[in-house]
Amino acid sequence: MKQSRMLIPTQKQDPTGAEALSHRMLLRAGYIQQVSAGTYAYLPLAYRVLEKIERIIKQHMDAAAACEMLVPEIIPAQFWRDSGRYETYGDELFKLQNRHDTEFILGPTHEETFTELLKASVKSYKKLPLNLYQIQSKFRDEDRPRYGLLRSREFIMLDAYSFSADDADLDQIYKEMRTAFEAIFNQIGLNYRGIIGDSGSMGGSDSMEFSAPAAVGEDTIVYSDDSEYAANLEMATNLFVPQKSHAELEPLELVETSDVKTITQVTKFFDVQPDQVVKSLLYVADGQLVVVLLRGDQVVNEAKLKHVLEADSLELATPDQVAANLHVQPGSVGPFDLPAGTKVVADEYVQPLVNAVVGANQTDHHYQGFNPTRDLPDLEYVDVRTVREGDISPDGSGELQFTKGIEIGHIFKLGTRYSKVLGADILDENGRQQPIIMGCYGIGVSRLLSAVAEQQADENGLVWPTAIAPFDVHVIPTNVKKAEQVELATQITQTLEAAGYEVLVDDRKERAGVKFADADLIGIPVRVTIGKKADEGIVEVKIRKTGETVETKVDDLQNTITILAKEM
């Protein structure tokens, strides 16, 4: 392929507003171009990378007995109303109407669509299990799209859905898909971790997230420094080792605390450490009031809390909601004298506290001498705190460490979350109706471009792994006015292509320095430079990843590339 015949609008300077390394380099190297905030065109080089990624995905999906198909990007809004996600998904839904005022959404994901299709066509357990997938654009109206392809409003995604008659089949497909995803990411050349994930609005039980460590990642990966444990911060736990106190229990005493509202103010007023304070937070979970008790030096993990409460929606109450429901000002909320029906949940670190300070649920008052096991013997203790670096790993091996990561894939066991509400039933082997058991599996295909770039790009440009590079070899005659260079470039290109290599030839009438800078930006694994020694049949080979260069005779070029490629 001649470079002069391709649309590759490289840029010398970093584009304004591009913060992430991958965003800067994909723009500068002419791979993507912004069309509107959060939407991008994939230019020819990027499209070639995407095609190779999709080819790898399809290879391993075939091995997992998953069948490719395609459903409409436009979804009847009624599907999502029936599942309950139309409201809970929030403002990220793109909503539209046709000329007949029928409501639709642009699909951010397709659990409902696939479930409706199976509902209409599969009636017996004999037709299961099935594992179906598609690769298409998805749409989410991000409030603040950022980092290029990492958080965009339109993106390309693999979404797969499995349908089983029993849990054993679901477990087997879940295992096969995990193996397939790992093979895909390994072949692409990513550094990644499989971690415990949060299913979030997807619903379901077991969940594993695949995350690529990167400084720009918006997810926090929590891992043990001495074991295989790894989890998303939203789901991470630690080994709870209660510290037993032998202090004599003090009586519960009501204390007036005017203008004492924050943990800092409380600790100063009572002359105690934050870990001797219990803070009380009011939440609204699916319309129910929930008071959460947490040690003063710790932070609520709302994902964990949502799971504990089995809630579809969870919001921290506003000051107005606190006043209206508890008749107390924020800062004095406590677990006493609560309205009927209010649920109280205490983090497990609250249980061993002795003689702590807690809100009295009376404006400008706190209790000191609070002993949870004595004063509130019926409290429910659960893990709803956010772990911290240095905590003991939940398997007891090592301490927890944090790193940033990019979510590149996710697998879920959905169970009957969608089939029940949408009425997707089958007849089992005993002739009884039962809901289909489902799994869901996704890979951010376009996001993989950014993930690879974040991990492997350098200050000069992109560095593509061989498996997904847009071309294998970049042939550069330094001066196209010299016939011997052009002829040698043509000869080399024909020979390499005949051997199965994909070759990009820089036939542009540009200075050598411009060509080299663009070659580094574009990031093709091997560069063959044809210069002053062309008439001697000698060229220079450079490996983009290592920067290693060697001179070789044209007759030895293929062997040289093969040898050097082993080091990539």
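the 2nd protein, sequnce then structure:
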Amino acid sequence: MKRNLHFLKNYSGHIINIIMIILGSLGLVGNYYHSLGFPESVLISLFILCMMGIGFYCYFVKYQIMPKKLAMIIIIVLLLGMILLFQNELTYFIDALQTVIERDYFLNFDELLPTDMYSRSLFFQMVFLFIGLPIVYLIVSSICSMRFSFMKILSMIFLFMFPIFIRHELTSLNSYCFIIFICFQFLFTVALKYTYTYTFKGMILSLLCVMSLLASSYMEGNPIFQQETSSVLSQITDWFSHGKGNPFGNFLRTGMSGDVDGSLPTGNIQLSRSLAVTVKADIPFSSYLRAYSLANYSDNEWHEVTENYENSHSLTIYSEFLRLNSSLPTQNVEITTQRQYDFQFVPYYLMDREQQYPVLYDSYIEHTNYPLEVIYQNVYYYGDGYYFVGYDDDYEEYVKRHYLDVPEELSIQLSDFLADNGIDDSIRFDALSAVESIRNLLASQAEYDLNAGTLPNDKDFVEYFLFENRKGSCTHFATAGALLLRELGIPTRFVRGYTMLASDFDNGVAKIPQYRSHAWIEVYEEGKGWIPYEMTLTGNIEGISTLLDDTVSQNQQTSNNSQTPTIQSDQEIPQNTTDNPFIPQESTSSYPYIEIIVQVAVILIFIIVYRYITTHWLMLKTRCMNNNQKVLTYYQQRWKLTPQHQIDDECKAIAYKAKYSSHKISDEEWLRFYELYQQWIQEYDRSLKWYQKLIFRYVLGYK
């Protein structure tokens, strides 16, 4: 027992430090594995890097010095190995990387080599080790050496944020590992300043782990994790502008939020090209990827139903109708997302033979990791069919109670709008004709435009779209279309998700970008169920998907004064083009400089804060100390840069008095010591070369 306690006492501190090395490596290097799109094979290299970090730490414990030469030799060997063994791959890799950087494309390492080179796993292993080794060395150095600890922490925070600045996403798991590591390092190397017992360190580490677990489980998802930089910057812009009416324009990014969100866009929309959803299927097919539906429109938002319908299967009612009236084939589809969602993306038309997917709030099914069985052929079946046995009449009554509401004031305007255009409620008996009539009416009254401007604070979303602004995105058309159909007595609901085309599939995998996020409607037909309809002028999923693809790929900023293309009723729908990542593409932002302005502002704020902290660090550090402690802290800081024998005698005498005697340093002695310290700063600065002065003044903050 005593031997175990002795072992625990001697090695617990080392065990905690090793845990921190692993957390830091997973947090930093692991995020690079995810964000840069390395193939899964480099997980072996990630494990090797963790072992190298532990090896560096053991070397320091034994020799009390970091293995700089060893780390440098390994880096040189890796570089030479790539040059000698993979010359062709390295050349192609560098050229492709240069093209990505120049054109500002989405960087994905596993796509920088042609398909016939994907088997070169060793090459990616060496690239990953080459990138990760300096980072692991920095992590170990921050744990082992107290020198420049604050600078090391800032460097690691910058490395952690780097993927965000190149428009990549972070993973929550790795990010929380980094947060635990960096908080631990800050507490013990900067804030606490002293070496505490292993028991105290263990308590702090446990507390940080518990806090991170609670934060990841119960708090709203962090906007940095699993969102690319443009989304984060747009949120920062919103924070600065307080929402509507900001001087730069209120920008919204395409994509889906992690939870059910009924908010509608109040400003211009920018198309985000980051990856959203990956779909695997044996047979390519086109379909909406349905996320959720909403029932009630009020206060410029859509809301869920106020009364839940138990055991609802509204997503599969029409699928059962089709299966009864035709022999359409089905297949299993696997869907994975880049971030966590409360709901499951579902292609049309879902089959639930075992009724294992209950529909929550008559809106969506919960997230599942199991494949979904769907009817994969395009379905345009609107004729009469057989009512299938077991059809729920009570659900139809529920639909009429919840999917026909229109706000009272808006109802009067919509009714007059329909009457003025020769549409009355007699058309409700033919849902397809009603939808086509409403879609054509919207096309004649408004244009599809992602730069619809800012919604005035005192205006209704639909009213402003139909009667004043007359331009908007898919959410404008879907919202207005749903309410107009309800005014005709046709139950309709608003739906959000993504569009997917058969042409998106490559070797059975379709990667759907964020800009394919879309809004459409579902119309309820008695005896059949909910049927999806497109409300934009394109009229179908192929048209709207092609429009979004072409909007991203074309240079709209130069051709039409930085405006996203609009669709008039007499325009043709653009044809699809191949989106080659190595063909120049331009940003679709209508305000191309807003991100640059925000980025520059963030950088300037960081520089100002950094400059203030570094120049006032000793003052902040010693503000609660007595004079003896102040003298010793400043003396130690000076001793780090100057050999002891070069410190003047007067300064040394005051420091020794503070250290080795019971004398309490008076205010006059402290002020004299501080004066000598400042004189030394001036003299030392004059003795440095110009590049050393830059580091001394502006990096280390001594002047």
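The longest strand covers residues 492-500. Confidence is low (pLDDT under 50) at residues 226-232, 238-250, 380-390, 555-592.
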